[in-house]
What does this fold into?
Amino acid sequence: MPDRPTSIVVAQRKPRLAALAALLALAVAAATATPAMAAVPAGTPIVNTAALTFEMNGSAQQVASNTVTLVSAELLDVTITAERPSLAVQSQAQVAVPFVIVNTGNGPQSFALTITGNQQGVVVDRVARDGNGDGAFQTDTDPLLTPPSVRLAPGEQVRIFVLVDGAQVAAAAAITATVSAQSGSGAAGTVFAGAGANGADAVVGVSGARASATSTLSPAGPAQPSLAKAQTVTAPDGSSRAMRGAVITYTLVATLPGPTRGVTIDDPIPAGTAYLADSLALDAVALSDRADADPGTADAAGVHIRLGDLAAAGSHTIQFSVKIL
Amino acid sequence: MHLPMPALLLASVIATPALAAGPLQVTAKVLTEQKTRAADGSVRVALVPARRVVPGDRVIFVLGYRNTGSQPIGNIVLDNPVPAAIAYRGPSQSSAAPDVSVDGKTYGPLATLRVRTADGATRAAGPDDVTNVRWRLANAVPGGAQGQLSFQAVLK
It folds into this structure.
């Protein structure tokens, strides 16, 4: 059955709907990482004394051992997660890329943030803290971090936003956020003498006291105009077999997810068929084949509908028929 | 002599300095694993006195006892309350297995102990529940003899 591809040409209006808000609303679900066993805070003294009881000369006696005191050193550990590993960006809109940082160490620690972008032109110079913890960036509640660093209690987590100008995102861009403990980072087990809480030694944990996460930004919104095509066949014998003389009625449904400018729909008449005169209809209203005031024209080559500028989202249905030659 | 137990304990604690002047001495040590990488890439694990520990580090509590007198001493019981920041893991390979307790009153093998949960039911005790470790020495310790007992734990 001939069914050539249908083309739809759409020039997109600048998105007036708050694409940013919609994107960020999805980021509300915060990662809540709770350590299985709360780590002993850095600086905690661990005091051990054993008692020994015994019998001598018929009487029970007790002695205590010496007391051994250990002080828990500060463990430097951190994790960072890209809350939105991939983010679609509407051009011109400011995009807040969310990351969640967790201090998985056992002492209060400052973590410096470094943000890098792999695409030229995508400059990241601002990082904000999700001050009210709602998962969405607002200028009034989420302060900018200058210099970019966060101080976290043991086990505490925070969400940060890397602020990117969506207009700069022309191709897929990777934004990488790296956190590292201010007291020091490096190979697990590295000791920074006296660098921990209250002058305790700091010891690098399994994370290396450093972690990175990447979020990939891609241009254009996730909602694209779409066109669906369906057909029904009516044969002269009343069946739906595609035979000579049968009429194929095509139904095109164009769905536009937002305000869209300059919408035209063109569908060529399939080879081996002939357009059935005056069969063109838009949203169940018949259109003339001539080029005139109504938005549709049709000829032997194809049908053309000019919807023009559409102020709101919506869908439109076009129908026309051809006869199998 | 039938002093009530608490009074007796109090008296002995006050009367006895940490390192007893009496014939039986007990010393406590806490060791940790120190890994050193040799030039050929092999890793050597040595036990050294713990000075710097971080959560997750394995530590070994060692109790040494010594009878400095000449008479045998019987019914020796060593009791080591497990510090709150420490989670018991098990006896050391070289040591006799201790009895443990999850409440400081009832002692036994860990598998026989149960803990009461918030809803009033009980569940089998796990190593994290252990509050006290205790050894009863079956035999009297002769004069001049010594021994060592130990258990493994981890810093919470």
